[in-house]
Structures are given as C-alpha cells and as structure tokens.
Amino acid sequence: MRAEALDPVLLRTFVAVADLGSFTAAAAAEGYTQSAVSRQIAALEDVCGVELFARGARGVRPTPAGEYLLPYARGLLDRLADTARALDGLRRLDTGTLRLGAFPTANAALVPRALARFRARHPGVRPVLREGTTERLLPMLEAGDLDLAVVSTHKIPSIAAEDLVTLADDALLVALPSGHRLAGRDRVALGDLADEPWIVADDPEAVAALRARCEAAGFVPQTPLRVAEWISKLGLVAEGFGVTLVPALAASAAARDGVVLSAVASDQPRRSVYAAVGRHARRSPAVTAFLADLRDVAGNLRDTARDPRAAGGER
C-alpha cells in the first residue's frame, strides 16, 4: 500500500467518527452531510482493505483494525497540522533563515543597519551572512548557496545577474590625514593627489581599479602601502602615510580621529550597488522584506554621504 493513498481528508473524517461515535455527529462537526461521511469512511475502508467501524443501532465504534489505525491517523494529522503551522510561520516571517552575502564595505554600515531593522520586525528569522567580493558572491548566488547578495561594479563594469535591484549610485570619497594640505576643502580633485602615496588592497583587481581612476585623472598612482582591511587603511591615513578612497556608503563607519573625508571634485568615481536575488528566492517573504530595508537604509546613507564631513568628521 502506498502512503499517498491515505487521503488526509478521509483520515480526519475517520478520527471524527471515532471520537464522536456517530456518522451524524461527525458530519455536523466537519460540515458534511451524513451520506458524505458514509462515503468517505467506505472509501477509506476500501483503501485499507478492512472494516474500520462496527455499525449498530446506537451508533458506531471502531473495530480492532480501526482501533489499531486510530493513533497512526492522529499522529499523521498532527504532523500535517505542524507542517501547515510551519509554512504559515515562514509566510508571516515568524521563523526561517535569510542567507545573504555582501562585499566588505557594504558590511560597514549598509548591511548591519538593514539587518537591525529587519530583526526588529522579524526576530524569529535567522540571518546567515557571508562576506566576499562580487566575483565570489555571484557564483554562490547562482548555485543556490545564497538567497540575496549585495554586489557592486567597483571592479567590473557590469553585473551579469537576472534579478538586480538598484540600491545606490555610490560615489567614492577620498580619506585624507586631518593635517593634509587639502583637508580643508569640501572637494578634492584626484589630480591634486598625484604625488601622494595611495593605500590599496594587495589585490590585482583592486590595484587595477585604482589605477584606472587615477590614469583618467592624468597620473599613475604610487601604491607602496598594500593593506586590505579598512581599519588598517584608515589607521595609516590618520598617521599621515597616504590617502585612500572610501565608498560613500561606508562613510559613516569610517569616522575616526585624524581622518577627513572629502568628495572627489568633478567626474567623481562612482560605482553602482545592487541587491542580486537568487532565482530560487524570488518569492521568498524574508528576501522581499529585507530588500525593503536595504533600500531604505541605502537611501539614508546616500543622504548622509552628500555631506562627507558630517559622516567622516573634521577629526
């Protein structure tokens, strides 16, 4: 006998008749006619190949076979009810998992603030976060290992993904030591920093991206200081060892003593920041809700970044 032959509707009627001792009472309780209940019990008996009830003038009672089946039927119906409750919990965002990835500077402010908003409304959903470059995150999204990834065109001109949600057109600011000769300016031209040591990650793509921006401004950058972490980069800037570019989305997290953030004058280097959604997650309630939070936080950070000194401070 195949398990799928056991129709839950028939099992529910079977339990109701067993509990109430009457086809008539079960029909009233379940919203059926008495004849419909009789047909359902007969259908279940045909499937099982045994009589489940002994019919009498005073009602019905389970046969030994019916008594044997009864706890299994109750257990199956309970598990079905648990499954329905679990699905409702996923739809209501009372439970579940949100698997997301983001490039490092998105994890400075954008993703943590969006996650904080999301958690305040949906504390039962567990976030799982992976950090990596756009080039690493997109294959993970394609493979179904992530539901959503925050990616950018920092190192690549365009992103090959089907479902892209625009979050920001992110300007790159320049971080200067507070005692730098240009620290008092609201905007600084890249060409004015041609003789400065540039601090950049020791990564061929990161160096190439910086070089392309600087060559467009008429010079080849000196990059003697190769460090990846933003804490290290800004620490070196604060001590006067060089300058570095800071994405505007990370400006509020880059505030520290000894560092001033300035906008890049004219033709500002920009990158597009997107949320890429996995094909399997297009209808995910958690992804839909988190996307709304990402958009709101990106908008707030964009407004803050319009005044980089407010974010980075005069310190």
Automatic annotation (TrEMBL):
<keyword id="KW-0238">DNA-binding</keyword>
<dbReference type="InterPro" id="IPR036390">
    <property type="entry name" value="WH_DNA-bd_sf"/>
</dbReference>
<keyword id="KW-0805">Transcription regulation</keyword>
<feature type="domain" description="HTH lysR-type">
    <location>
        <begin position="6"/>
        <end position="63"/>
    </location>
</feature>
<dbReference type="Pfam" id="PF03466">
    <property type="entry name" value="LysR_substrate"/>
</dbReference>
<dbReference type="GO" id="GO:0003677">
    <property type="term" value="F:DNA binding"/>
</dbReference>
<protein>
    <submittedName>
        <fullName>DNA-binding transcriptional LysR family regulator</fullName>
    </submittedName>
</protein>
<comment type="similarity">
    <text>Belongs to the LysR transcriptional regulatory family.</text>
</comment>
<dbReference type="GO" id="GO:0032993">
    <property type="term" value="C:protein-DNA complex"/>
</dbReference>
<keyword id="KW-0804">Transcription</keyword>
<dbReference type="Pfam" id="PF00126">
    <property type="entry name" value="HTH_1"/>
</dbReference>
<dbReference type="InterPro" id="IPR036388">
    <property type="entry name" value="WH-like_DNA-bd_sf"/>
</dbReference>
<dbReference type="InterPro" id="IPR005119">
    <property type="entry name" value="LysR_subst-bd"/>
</dbReference>
<dbReference type="GO" id="GO:0003700">
    <property type="term" value="F:DNA-binding transcription factor activity"/>
</dbReference>
<dbReference type="InterPro" id="IPR000847">
    <property type="entry name" value="LysR_HTH_N"/>
</dbReference>
